[in-house]
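Entry type: protein chain
Record version: 2
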Amino acid sequence: MKSAPGVLALEGALLWMLLVVPPIRQALQATMTAQMLVQIPLLVIAGWLISGAVPRRVDAALARWNSAGVTGVLLASVTAAMWMLPRMLDASVDEAWVAAAKFTSIPLLIGVPLALSWPLMAFVVRGVFLLELTASAFRMGWLYLVSPMRLCSNYLLSDQQLLGRLLLVLGAALCLLLAWKLIWGRVRVDRIEV
C-alpha cells in the first residue's frame, strides 16, 4: 500500500527530529562507523522522504534546471563527498555550527535532490551514479583501512579500520547488485527502481 507524499514527508520530518535528539545523536556519533554508516544514511533517507512535501510547481520549475537528473545528482555527490572527509566527521562532533550544517545539508542537499532527480535519470546516469557510489565506498574503505594513523581525532584507529572493512564490504555488495541488474534486469527496492 502506497503512502501519500504528505505522509512520507511527515515520516521524514519525524525521522530527522529523532536523529537530532541529543541522546540519539550522541549515540550515533560515538563511533566513526555508526556516524558514517547509520547516521548519515538515515539523514539522506529523511531528506528523500521530506521531498514529498515539495510542491508540484516547484518540482516542475526545478526539473527545467535538472535535465535528466544530472544537476541534482551532481549537487548530492559533491555534498556527500564533503561529508565523507574525516575532518568534517570530526568537526561535526566538536563544533555545534558544523553539526547544524550536517543536519541540514545532508537531508536538503543529498536526500531531497536525489529523490527529485532519481525519476528523471536515464539508465546511463543512474549507472554512473551507482558506479561512483561503489568506487567511493572502495576508495574510502581502502583509505580508512590502510592508514597507519588516525584520520579522525575523535575516534580510535580500530574503529577507523572497522569502518574501512565495512565500506569495502559495502562496495562489494554494490558491485554484486549492479552485476545482478546487468545480468537479470530490474531490481526493485520497494518503490525505488534501480
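Comment: The radius of gyration is 17 Å.
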